[in-house]
Amino acid sequence: MKLLQCEVRISYTNFNLFYHYVSLTEPLIGGSVVSMGEAPVFVVDNLNGNFPNGLHLKSKGCETAIDIGNKTYVIGTSTESASTIGIQIFNKATSEWVIPVVLGTKPKPSKGHSAIVLDEDRILVIKGNTISDDSFWFLEVNTAFVREQKIRMATEVVAWSKGVIGEAAKPIVISGPSGVGKGTLISKLMEEFPSMFGFSVSHTTRAPRTNEQNGIHYHFTERSVMEKDIADGKFLEYAAVHGNLYGTSIEAVDVVADKGKRCILDIDVQGARSVRASSLEAIFIFICPPSFEELEKRLRARGTESEEQIQKRLRNAMAELEQRNSPGLFDHILINDDLDACYEKLKKLLGLADDVKSTKESVLDPVHVPLEHTVSKTDHKILINCGVREPEKPAKNMFVLDLASMKGGAPGRTRGLRFYAIDPSSNGIGAEVLS
Ligand SMILES: Nc1ncnc2c1ncn2[C@@H]1O[C@H](COP(=O)(O)OP(=O)(O)OP(=O)(O)O)[C@@H](O)[C@H]1O
Ligand SMILES: Nc1nc2c(ncn2[C@@H]2O[C@H](COP(=O)(O)O)[C@@H](O)[C@H]2O)c(=O)[nH]1
């Protein structure tokens, strides 16, 4: 077993790091583990001459510095009033500081955090003094998504992805021509399983219909605003549909995952294709009308579109229907003839038997991760030591964060984490699961 255990205290004077290794059987791969004992004060004013373009970085909060390749990622809350944990990058090759574009939902600051390199692509940040469902965050610095965004934006980019403990079920993408009944089926699912599913509220530039509420059915937005947000990398996918812009923001998906619910996306085929190409692992379902005539009948009966819009939507439906058998795009095709029959089939393929009225797929007891902790890494396991165990007390002070089944990542959550307490007196990490 490759057990790496170390502790790094940071003394930030002239950017000198003082590393104190408690025990180290193998050098860390370009990384550092930071103890939470004393919140380090990081003063980078002393880095004379490293501020091109007059850039001066001032930091006095709790920060950690992590090396990957020739870059040092400084992760931390630079001011007390900061609403999220900030990122600064020091490029050792050019001796320059860079403030990267930071994508994804950013973690709110806690009183302190530890950080450890997982591989060349990501850093695990553990927020101290938090409950475990807000403790684990991944800072992606070179994943496929981040590399893509770096090219697209021609600048330095990093992305946050929140860690989710447990086997959160995959999001569901529902696609199909306008008027086929996607919204109707989704409403039925949300009504029957309100605590299991959450709807990804899309952005659109189309005008609201009379019964539609902003923030519930859509985020209705101006084209220029949406285009800027797209350029800023805030969208998981977007497409021009029937003459308007529609898109799923990363936040829309994250908001649902944060509630512990399974996300449902109602998007067109172009959007489904983009999500398929992204790192969001989902189930893709195409809803098909029993006939083209029936589709037209439903669109007209809904009475929400002008004749011109109906014609446009029907033309686009032809193309969408042709793509339903596109190799590798949809996992399931459902024909929505009789609504109730189709709904039953949908439930069946989602593994929802008649008697399931579940509230949550897996409820794990949240654990308090204290401010004071040290972390070490062995293979896929992160050992979190939360202090000295008191005799006579079955204190759970050693925890394992198991990343072996980790899935997903930015844009979106990193799912499939296992988190459990271990008894250090037993024979080896993870030998005895206490919770
Ligand atoms: N199986 C069905 N049989 C008859 N009518 C249906 C059926 N399913 C849905 N409808 C009706 O068809 C109309 C269109 O349905 P819905 O609005 O759910 O379609 P949609 O696919 O979400 O459309 P859009 O993509 O434009 O949002 C609605 O009036 C709905 O009540
Ligand atoms: N690519 C995306 N398509 C979306 C999104 N939200 C909705 N849609 C699709 O647009 C059409 C028209 O919807 P309507 O509400 O104007 O009738 C429909 O097929 C939806 O599936 C999105 O975020 N991205």
UniProtKB/TrEMBL annotation:
Domain Guanylate kinase-like: residue ranges: 169-351
Top EC class, one word: transferase
Catalytic activity: GMP + ATP = GDP + ADP
An example Gene Ontology molecular-function term: GMP kinase activity
Record keywords: ATP-binding, Kinase, Nucleotide-binding, Transferase
Pfam families membership: Guanylate_kin
A single GO cellular-component term on record: cytosol
Transmembrane stretches, start-end: none
InterPro entries from the UniProt entry: Gal_Oxase/kelch_b-propeller (IPR011043), GK/Ca_channel_bsu (IPR008145), Guanylate_kin-like_dom (IPR008144), Guanylate_kinase (IPR017665), Guanylate_kinase_CS (IPR020590), Kelch-typ_b-propeller (IPR015915), P-loop_NTPase (IPR027417)
Enzyme Commission code(s) on record: 2.7.4.8
Origin: domain of life: Eukaryota
Family listed: Belongs to the guanylate kinase family.
PANTHER family: GUANYLATE KINASE (PTHR23117:SF13), GUANYLATE KINASE-RELATED (PTHR23117)
Name of this chain's protein: Guanylate kinase 1
